[in-house]
Amino acid sequence: MEEYVIRKYFKKINYDSFLQNVKVDNKFGDTDPISNRNIIFDAYYNDNEKERFIEVTQSITLMISDRIYIMLNKIYNYNHIKDAKASLTLIIPRIIEEDTKINSISKLRDIFSPAITSGLLNIVQIDIYKEEIEELYKK
């Protein structure tokens, strides 16, 4: 489902130019002064203006918000060490007829408003119809 959601959001971009399951490597300890934990992102795209780490999540829980914090910390440190302009694009699919995520997304935007304001985080909601999911799983 992640690949389908990413393709739907970035429909004008050649998906073959995306890297999948990308990690910010910290094997030399130079991108994170706090932890050597490696984080794997669903995808990565560099459009020569900005590097985008992409994560798709279908549920919004306290554990997910903690994971997002860790991802943002990795990208923040990466930007400062590498003098880069990277951000996290968080894509949240909303299955039409199950719109309970609206308040949760609002809560995420409140929690991470400094990261959104600075351009470090972009939260996107993609509507997916049940027919699309059924078609996806037929393949």
- The CATH architecture classification is 3-Layer(aba) Sandwich
CA distance, first residue to last residue: 12 Å
Q: State Rg.
A: 15 Å
Would you tell me the structural class of the helices and strands? Answer: alpha/beta
Unreliable residue stretches: none
Count, helices? 5
* Domains (count): 1
What can be said about the biggest beta sheet? 5 strands, mixed
Work out the number of β strands.
5
Strand-residue proportion = 25-35%
Shape: globular
Helix content: 25-40%
Spatial sequence of strands, sheet with the most strands:
1-2-3-4-5
CATH topology: Trna Endonuclease, Chain: A, domain 1
Order of helices and strands: HEEEHEHHEH
Mean pLDDT: 83
At the first level of CATH, the class is: Alpha Beta
